[in-house]
Amino acid sequence: MSRKIKISSEVTYFAAIVLLSLAVATLSTADFGISMIVAPAYLLSLKAGFLSFGQAEYVVQAIVFILLCIVLKRFRFVYFFSFGTCLIYGFVLDLWRKIPFLNPAATPPGSMNLPLRIAMFVIGMILTSFSVALFFKTYLFPQVYDFFVKAVSCKYGIKLSRLKTIVDLSCLTASVIMTFAFFGEIRGIGWGTLIMALLNGTVIGFFSKLLDKAFDFKPTFTRFAAMFKLGTAA
Predict the structure, then answer these.
(1) Which of 146, 155, 163 lies closest to 76 in space, CA to CA?
(2) What are the residue ranges in the chain where pLDDT is below 50?
(3) In this structure, which of 38, 66, 126, 207 has its CB flanked by the most CB atoms within 10 Å?
């Protein structure tokens, strides 16, 4: 039996943030439909105008955080770390979108040639699933969307990939309502969004199994890691 490669949970956490924000920036440029998870924030940024994509994430995830505490029927101060992850993610996302070929001002969404857009969509979709799988391998809480899935799955014993698909489809439904309420037409979401909503949970589960086979994720700061342990009881 081959030995697994040991990797720091903390390094995994930051890698997940960088890759996920890159995936979102790539998908928004490809313009076949952004991830259903971030679509509400994307639509809010388009409607508000004064909010960047990353800043709109802060607003939406604050709402999801409140919903999380209601569903869990409890609150722990350490849960705020998931919102801290959101702040870092939003900042890095806005940095990625300053790069010319990912900047909506310099490269309007959908303006690239079709083969390149398709390649960017596929890469973005794969990176999204892979980065979320990475988040689930670290003790540090992911941003609120994925922490919601992780915490609720742990508390109620729901299969993680199945719950992820349910949450994704719920976000897709909310996005459809928002785009018609805000603009009277479809914006930001498309056939690519539907594909990700249907496949994302399964692909995350696939990457999760591969990661478990190849890597052993260990915290560098064990005492600090103990603070983030999620129990199954309320």
Answers:
(1) 155
(2) 1, 232-234
(3) 38
